[in-house]
């Protein structure tokens, strides 16, 4: 029986992956802190864990072909001390619990893909950040990304192929980021945000799932991969393309001071909009992966 495990698979990316892979696997097990069941997919089963300690859930990993770990508290919140602690430890604990569970298995999964983030690179407007030449940033988010990747990559489990997915912002019809952009445009606020020169590294959710499938199937691929479309865009261009796709001629800009007030009011951080992520998927492209949605106009035409 071919089985896939998705830890933290109850959210946006996990549910898209489950739908994408449901016909390729006999069973998909979602590790979640909540008891739930999949209404849409008959071969998708939820198993409870706490993302920290060992338990019955770890038996599910025995003989599984693929493990994907996406668990982590959402970063869409204010970075106060309590949230910072939860953002960091939800990722470290889940990755650590999976490492222990795997080391106790007789038949280990062949491949383990762990979420990571393109936020690990510095604020960059001047040049592309590749896996080989990208420069790391600093501050809370970068520290979380670094610790998370280290927790995943440092524990050596010889028979497992490990892949860290440095994911850019995934655009999908049913996700909050895409819906927020659409609403801004709808209400006439779809102009540039801040200076508008900051880059936005994105990927269409279908290409996200396809790139995960590509990495599972290509057994020679291992290590760190940027999971972004090959063409990051400036915020100014992004907003222009959103307005165009939605036939909206008016788009008031949001200066930095306004974003700062707005972020406090809606309980988020301006870093998510103002940090320039100019990240490109050099290793995916070199491996021969072809994007269905390589540019933002093509992706938005599909999504809107
Ligand atoms: N979406 C993106 O654009 C993007 C970009 C870069 C990186 N990523 C990373 O990819 C991963 C998945 O993203 P997503 O968009 O699918 O996020 P999501 O919708 O927020 O799902 C994350 C999952 O993590 C689990 N989780 C939350 N807090 C947890 C905790 N304290 N302990 C254990 N599990 C916890 C939740 O599962 P339960 O509540 O069911 O336990 C949730 O379903 C995240 O780690 C995220 O940082 C996402």
Q: Radius of gyration over alpha carbons?
A: 19 Å
Spatial strand sequence of the major β-sheet: 3-2-1-4-5-6-10
Q: Tell me roughly what share of residues is in helical segments.
A: 25-40%
Q: Quick one: biggest sheet?
A: 7 strands, parallel
**Shape verdict:** globular
What is the count of DSSP helices, taking H or I runs of 4+ residues?
10
CATH architecture: 3-Layer(aba) Sandwich
Q: What series of H and E elements makes up the topology?
A: EHEEEHEHEEHEEHEEHHHHH
Percentage beta strand:
15-25%
Identify low-pLDDT runs. none
Briefly note the structural class of the backbone.
alpha/beta
Q: Count the E strands.
A: 11
Q: For the record, what is the CATH homologous superfamily label?
A: NAD(P)-binding Rossmann-like Domain
Query: What is the level 1 CATH name?
Result: Alpha Beta
**What's the N-to-C terminus distance?**
38 Å
Domain DUF1731: 255-303
Family: Belongs to the NAD(P)-dependent epimerase/dehydratase family. SDR39U1 subfamily.
Protein name: TIGR01777 family protein
InterPro entries: DUF1731, Epimerase_deHydtase, NAD(P)-bd_dom_sf, SDR39U1
């Amino acid at each position: 029986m071919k089985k896939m495990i998705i830890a933290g698979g109850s959210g946006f990316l996990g549910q898209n992956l489950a739908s994408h892979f449901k016909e390729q696997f006999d069973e998909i097990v979602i590790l979640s802190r909540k008891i739930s069941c999949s209404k849409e997919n008959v071969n998708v089963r939820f198993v409870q864990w706490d993302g920290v300690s060992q338990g019955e859930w770890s038996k599910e990993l025995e003989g599984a072909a693929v493990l994907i770990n996406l668990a982590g508290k959402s970063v869409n919140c204010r970075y106060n001390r309590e949230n910072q602690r939860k953002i960091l430890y939800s990722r470290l604990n889940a990755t650590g619990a999976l490492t222990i569970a795997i080391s106790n298995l007789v038949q280990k999964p062949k491949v383990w893909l762990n979420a990571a983030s393109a936020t690990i690179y510095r604020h960059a407007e001047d040049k592309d950040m590749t896996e080989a030449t990208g420069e790391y940033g600093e501050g809370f988010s970068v520290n979380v990304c670094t610790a998370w990747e280290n927790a995943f990559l440092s524990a050596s489990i010889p028979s497992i192929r490990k892949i860290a997915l440095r994911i850019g912002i995934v655009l999908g019809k049913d996700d909050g980021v895409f819906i927020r952009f659409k609403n801004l445009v709808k209400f006439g606020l779809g102009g540039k945000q801040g200076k508008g020169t900051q880059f936005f590294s994105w990927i269409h959710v279908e290409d996200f799932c396809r790139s995960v499938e590509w990495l599972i199937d290509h057994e020679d691929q291992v290590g760190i991969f940027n999971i972004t479309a090959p063409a990051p865009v400036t915020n100014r261009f992004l907003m222009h393309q959103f307005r165009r796709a939605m036939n909206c001629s008016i788009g008031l800009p949001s200066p930095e001071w306004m974003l700062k007030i707005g972020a406090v009011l809606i309980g988020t951080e301006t870093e998510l909009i103002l940090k320039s992520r100019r990240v490109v998927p050099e290793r995916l492209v070199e491996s021969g992966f072809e994007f269905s949605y390589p540019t933002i106009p093509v992706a938005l035409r599909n999504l809107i």
